[in-house]
Amino acid sequence: MVNADSLTSSLNCVDLSNPDINQSVNSLKQACLDSGFFYVVNHGISQEFMDEVFAESKKFFSLPHKEKMKLLRNEKHRGYTPVLDELLDPENQVHGDYKEGYYIGVEVAEDDPKSHKPFYGPNRWPSSGILPKWRETMEKYHEQALEVGKKVARIIALALGLDANFFDQPKMLGEPIAVLRLLHYEGRISDPTKGLFGAGAHTDYGLITLLATDEISGLQICKDRDAKPQKWEDVPPMKGAFIVNIGDMLERWSNCVFKSTLHRVLGNGKERYSIPFFLEPSHECLVECLPTCKSATNPPKFPPILCQDYLSQRYNDTHANLTIYKKQQNLQY
């Protein structure tokens, strides 16, 4: 049972090829004030390559469960996440999310001093004998999505009255925590009245998320998270476009001028594939109220916090403890 009472949301569209930067800034700003979600088109990643990325994603999720579990995520959040691994809305979910995923981050060699940082280290890759083009495809996509994310961040900076290159600083997106995640939703039917969701209601953690989806609907947003009852709106997929949403860190930076928006995924009985790209600043970035977003009558609403501390806490709160899987494996053998 899906939510039949939901409305269809009408989102602003930001065209990255538009020569009129003021028009793009105004469209993005209005979207962030209204819903925190918008489409991005003409982003420079070809549809042919996007189709290839989705095809490679499906190949991985089609592998036997035993093979996928050999690549189980590690403490750096690299690798496979099984169905029910993530619990995003414990107040309303009976079980975890009915989705499986795969985390791919910035590739950092094990002997690199940076590899001691959370979310940094070597990625886990399927065997080239099983999926020969997989690593090459995902690394190329990670690189291209990062460039799109930086272009969007420059428009966000202008929308907040900052220099266009504000987020390009070394301690921000100069050395980002940029995480690509492949997702596969089982062909289950969600039922909010019974606490069953493809992905529970949540806000994203970082600066922005670039979401690529297949043609299957399922994403919903709630513009007013404090409303009783909450009103949910469907976000339709758009061929060739990213669905972009702002995250908690941008809410903190902007002092709630831009608010991260509650969203969830409801399954409708069809398999669904999506690929979010989470763009976060560097580990040492201190996320604190921007000078353009505070005043004597509007002081900062949040204390400053390091990016790595905030992300680590949020990931630990929502993912299963890895010892659970070790116990399961010990019981099997």
TrEMBL record:
Coiled coil: none annotated. GO terms for molecular function: dioxygenase activity; metal ion binding. Keywords: Iron, Metal-binding, Oxidoreductase. Residues 176-281 form the Fe2OG dioxygenase domain. InterPro entries: DIOX_N, IPNS-like_FE2OG_OXY, IPNS-like_sf, Oxoglu/Fe-dep_dioxygenase_dom. Signal peptide: none annotated. PROSITE patterns: FE2OG_OXY (PS51471). It comes from the Eukaryota. Belongs to the iron/ascorbate-dependent oxidoreductase family. This is Fe2OG dioxygenase domain-containing protein. It comes from Arachis hypogaea (Peanut).
